[in-house]
Amino acid sequence: MISNQIIQNSIDELRAITKVDIYIFDLDGMKIASTSDEMQISRDIIVNFANSPADSQVVGGYHFLKILDDGEIAYVLAANGNNDDAYMIGKVAVSQIQNLIIAYKERFDRNNFFQNLILDNLLLVDIYNRAQKLHIEVECPRIVYLIETKLEKDNSAMELLRSLFSSQNGDYITAVDEKNIILIKALERNTSPEALEQTASMIVDMMNSEAMMNVRVAYGTVVHELREVSKSYKEANMAMDVGRIFYAEKNVIAYSTLGIGRLIYQLPVNLCRIFIDEIFGDSQVFDIDDETLTTINKFFENNLNVSETSRQLFIHRNTLVYRIEKLQKLTGLDIRTFDDALTFKIAMMVVNYMKYLDTLEY
What we know:
Blueprint: H1 4-18, E1 22-25, E2 31-34, H2 43-51, E3 56-59, E4 62-69, E5 72-80, H3 84-118, H4 124-133, E6 139-148, H5 155-164, E7 172-174, E8 180-186, H6 193-210, E9 216-219, E10 223-225, H7 229-246, E11 252-254, H8 260-265, H9 269-280, H10 290-301, H11 306-313, H12 317-331, H13 338-361
Helix pairs in contact: 1-3, 9-13, 10-11, 11-12
């Protein structure tokens, strides 16, 4: 149901234009919104009018009218004055509030529809039938963006996104949990991957500058039919998880760029433990210090180039070689060779995945 504040804002605007005071009551005769506190009409009069077959009535210098919702009376409106002007202004207010009720109900219904759609709670025939009733285009390129806000019940983030992405353009904002907002975005045909990432980056920047929030954005792949939106959502959800484990430094993660991280994420934990045992044996790979890990990661970033890595780390070449050889003694892997470097990279990603699973258990 539409909020009392929305009704109050609506009649305040009319009062500013027409100078006619308007009062809104529920079916029990309780005042829920008004432009003045001067009206003194008993609740019995309002309740009796609500239960009468009349569409309008003049009592005590006020025009009473009914506000309907799907043919059923929802509110009683009173306009100050018993002349035609008061009656016409009251009719305008009734029409405006009834249209607001329809708009907010449609927005709620769309929100409910998309929530059930992405969670696979709808039959195929229901998807098409409800989409038609809600005026949602069935065949349209779409992609799902998942925005992790890290704050529970933060309405400011939701409202900011709604100001950026309009349902008039086919974009819809919803949520299925406390900390993640879902943007289902309509796309132009042949939208480039660069444009998709630019949208995600724009969301991050706007949230940071306008709402002072550090968010992470993950997105799935483009789908071309409404029934496939849940697929893009699942991909975005996986991208968020995989990014959290393997790419913590990134605030934008695309499903299509997850690479080997996506493969490791789908491995059974028992298989991961067997792999680690086979690679490292009794080595204390979980206890590798941060300095060594930083050195290794920088070494990999520079494609196993010792000179460039030592330059970027501001250390002597021999110091870097010493750290690499120290790691070789610990693990038996010489990461200066491609095969051992690849093995170690995958193994450390598996280790990070296992650490993540351990945090979920607790």
